[in-house]
Amino acid sequence: MDELIQILESINPDVDYRKETNLIDGKILDSFDIITIISEINEEFDIAIPAEEIIPENFNSAQKLYELIQRLED
Amino acid sequence: MLFTSLSFILFLALLLAVYYIVPYRFRWALLLVFSGIFYAFAGVVGFIFIGITIITTYAAARFIGSIHTSQSEYLKNAKDISRQEKKEYKEHSKKRMRVFLVPCLVVNFGILALLKYILVGRGFIGTDFILPMGISFYTFQTMGYIIDVYRGKVAAEKNIFKMALFTSYFPLLVQGPISDYKKLSETLYTPLSFSGKNFLLGFERVLWGYFKKLVIADRLLTAVSTIIGLPSEFSGAYALLGMILYAIQLHADFTGGIDITIGISQMLGIRLQENFDRPYFSKNITEYWRRWHISLGEWFKEYLFYPVSVAKPMLKLSKFSRDHFGDAVGKRIPVYISTIFVWFTTGVWHGRGLNFIVWGLGNCIIILISQELSPLYKRFHNKFPSLKATVPYKSFEILRTIFILSSLRMLDCYRDVPLTFRMFASIFTGGKYLEVLKGGFLELGITAADYIIVLIAVIIVFSTSMVQRKGGIRERLFRRPAVVQCAVIALLLITIIIFGAYGVGYDSSQFIYNQF
Questions:
Q1: Contact (CB<8Å) A35/B335
Q2: Is residue B363 within 8 Å of residue B371, measured between CB atoms?
Q3: What is the pLDDT of residues B248-261, one digit of tens each?
Q4: Can you name the residues that pair with B123 across neighbouring β-strands?
């Protein structure tokens, strides 16, 4: 989880990712940010997030994103 | 049949007269019949192409859907297989699905490309070939659906007639919005029951759309066509005037048309997604593209930008770039390549010719430059924290955005790229400002009265947009006494009848976006 928070903070350090649950619906992250995050996750965790998983429910919070990573690692 | 023609008004009146009388379960079928009639008015040849799209998409979706079903059943029953075996099985299923998905995409996009870029405007059986009504919109809508079925986001539609309605629902055929299957199918197949409020609010929105289209857009049509048609004569200040008038015309035309589409649907108990969010109030081009033609932007993001960005070769390229050129380059690679690809395709979608490609890439360059400059903006605003909230600065941002997007739109207007660049440059070097102010603006086929009517109408639209920030106007009007509501509707109706611009035989012009 800490590695993921680091990735997210490199995109926008002003957000409290442990609490924020509205990253997409609240327009905190845009499509450019999402692509950069996916590319960083690919680098850090060595997993590919497919296009169909890029939905607000998976990206609205760090916790949800972490759950997605764990699901894809399985 | 144009939305603004008398025949369409009669067609709509007839539909509304029978729609709420037929039993609820047959309403979608009635919409299909009326969509067929509407489509027949645009030419019988179109039936062949929309028919191919309906049949191929329906069949491919059913095959893909059955593979999904057998996959779920297999995985449910096969409890003792390993994770690796499960993964392999899923990959094998995906491969089988692609056997149906890929040909469906190739056939449908192939038809669109063939007709739009090769046959349109060419001599064909003694007459010029005309693009089948709505093909750019329904092709994108149905291909979005088949990809959703492939992704397992929606189940395949079992009833081919329902599929036909999803493809051909007539209000969407003119200029979209390109609708998402999950949201549209729910409301299209099971619309809301009759509600006086919905009917009234829908009717008001239709009138508002006609007001924008007939009082503003069509009144400016002659002036814009005159300026564009004679570039050697109407350069300099005229080109700037043309740019401003086109920005007003296109906004009124496109948003007005979508108001009519959404309003008609609301009268029928069908909720469509919004296609605009007061786009001319955007502070930069990126924001503008999130608020203008939202459905096209969403389509490209969902089905092109994300898949290209996260494709395995792209991630490999990103990794390679990180290793060889550093993190800064590596993490930009997917964003840059996908953005260029999407904007190139958006340009191609809009039409044949280099103009649209240059227009698309022009938008792309501005978006990427703003992206790169954002840390600089951030530093600037940190230094002057109070500036951002001031009215003059906000107005500057809005006017800058409108100027940039209007400059790019000149590529829509002129016949080739070099001419567009010459006309744009002439705004700064070509003079003629005094000539325009001394009465040149009255030599463009419209009178002083036309300018005054348009000006008042634009002020009304602008004021409405300002009020809208605090919530829906029609909702607020609905809470007023019935007499106030009737007065507003009567006023709008009379304004459209008196001040609307009508062509020969009281038929107005087609919507600009219908040609794309």
A1: yes
A2: no
A3: 999 999 999 999 99
A4: B128
Of B229, B42, B207, nearest in space to B138 by CA: B42
**Domain carrying residue B160:** 21-193
B301 touching A (Cβ < 8 Å): yes
Residue B324 lies in a domain: no
**What is the DSSP secondary structure assignment for residue B22, as one 8-state letter?**
S
pLDDT tens digits, one per residue of B298-348? 999 999 999 998 888 888 888 888 888 887 888 788 889 999 999 999 998
Task: For residue B185, give both structure tokens.
Answer: 């199918």
What sign has the CA pseudo-torsion B459, B461, B465, B467?
A: positive
From the CB of residue B489, how many other CB atoms can be counted at a distance below 10 Å? 15
Closest CA to B512 of B197, B174, B263, B234: B174
Query: Least CB-CB distance to A51: which of B306, B333, B335?
Result: B306
Which residue ranges of chain A lie beneath pLDDT 50?
A: none
- Residues of A within 8 A of B322 (CB-CB) are 43
How far A69 CA sits from the closest chain B CA (Å)? 14
**Which residues in chain A (55-74) have CB-CB distances under 8 A to chain B?**
74
Residue written as tokens 């790169």? B372
The reply to whether CATH 3.40.50.2000 applies to domain A2-73 is no
Structural domain tally of chain B? Answer: 1
Does residue B420 sit within a domain?
no
Contact A38 B331 (CB under 8 A): no
Domain ranges of chain A: 2-73
Q: Which two tokens stand for residue B12?
A: 């709509």
| φ, ψ (nearest 5 deg) of residue B215 | -80, -35
d(CA B490, CA B482): 12
Per-residue pLDDT at B121: 60
Beta bridge partners of B127: B124
Q: Is residue B366 a contact partner of residue B285, using CB atoms and an 8 Å limit?
A: yes
How many whole angstroms separate alpha carbon A73 and alpha carbon A67? 10
CA distance B509 to B503: 7
Q: Predicted confidence band at B2 (pLDDT cuts at 50, 70, 90)? A: confident
**Which residues of chain A make contact with B83, given a CB cutoff of 8 A?**
74
B209 in any annotated domain: no
User: Is residue B387, in this structure, part of any structural domain at all?
Assistant: no
**Contact yes or no for B153 and A51 at CB 8 A:** no
Q: What is the largest CA-CA distance in chain B?
A: 87
Residue of B89, B63, B92 whose CA lies nearest to B76: B89
B interface test, pick of A35, A55, A71 with most B CB neighbours within 10 Å: A35
Note the pLDDT tens digit of each residue in B262-280.
999 999 999 999 999 999 9
Alpha helices in chain A (DSSP H): 2-11, 31-45, 56-59, 62-73
Residue B506 confidence (pLDDT) above 50: no
Distance from C-alpha of B339 to C-alpha of B334, rounded to nearest angstrom: 8
